[in-house]
Write a structure and sequence with these properties.
four-stranded parallel β-sheet; Rossmann fold; about 15% strand
Length: about 250
């Protein structure tokens, strides 16, 4: 028997309890026959005032992932989608592989995670090696992101962390601020810009930025959901979210 609404796939989505962006983003990209079911990873709305406090918050979210998995598997999802990005970059390429393997073992199904999804997206565009990175993180977390992409074969030319003071404050960053930061990151030495941090609202701005910059701008929510669809053989193309969902 097939789920009457999720007759193509039921996706279980894991995201922090403070995240207010990833759920509407994923729902906006959802094609007919695919349903998204959210399991919120409990976390207090941590006040991030330093590298140490930010990373402590990330570690707490990572520690609570297993409980969110235990909850989501009760709806028998076909596949999981990770709606939190920082934990998928910790420890570089090996750390990402380890995190993915632990989740898949606990859930009994596959998962798309932000780090590997962004790598797959950059490779889909083709010819990209030199990138710039934008995040809402603190420098210590950006160091993990840079390590991951370097180990994945990319050169991180420059990066910018917004040092958002709490988890919910990430969702309060305005498009005006993000446009300015994108302009500061861009240059002739950059072949693509990658945005990480799933509570940062950038799926539509990234699509628009591709038009004015003439190069890939990868929003992690777009990349992760695109990766989940393609991993499940769902090749629907969606307008309004950039070349990734429109062409690849």
């Amino acid at each position: 028997m097939t789920d009457v609404l999720g007759w193509r796939r039921k996706f279980g989505v894991l995201g922090p309890s403070t995240n207010t962006v990833v759920q509407p983003d994923f729902d906006d990209m959802r094609p007919a026959g695919v349903t998204n079911h959210y399991s919120r990873i409990f976390t207090p709305n941590a006040q991030a005032i330093s590298d140490a406090t930010f990373m402590a918050g990330v570690e707490l979210i990572g520690a609570n992932v297993q409980e969110a998995i235990r909850s989501i598997v009760t709806c028998a999802p076909d596949y999981l989608v990770m709606g939190m990005s920082a934990v998928t970059f910790i420890g570089g390429l090996a750390g990402a592989d380890r995190f993915q393997a632990e989740v898949e073992q606990a859930a009994g199904c596959g998962i798309s995670i932000g780090s590997h999804a962004c790598t797959a997206a950059l490779r889909a565009y083709g010819g990209v090696r030199r990138i710039a990175v934008l995040s809402p993180y603190f420098p210590a977390a950006n160091a993990h992101v840079a390590r991951y992409f370097t180990e994945a074969g990319f050169a991180v030319v420059r990066d910018r962390c917004l040092r958002c003071p709490s988890w919910t404050a990430i969702a309060e960053v305005t498009p005006d601020t993000l446009r300015q930061v994108i302009g500061e990151l861009d240059g002739t030495d950059v072949e693509a810009i990658v945005q990480v941090g799933t509570n940062l609202s950038m799926v539509r701005l990234a699509a628009a930025a591709e038009l004015w910059l003439g190069k890939p701008v990868v929003a992690i929510n777009t990349a992760t959901y695109w990766h989940a669809l393609r991993a499940n053989g769902i090749m629907d193309q969606r307008a309004g979210f950039g070349r990734l969902l429109e062409h690849f």
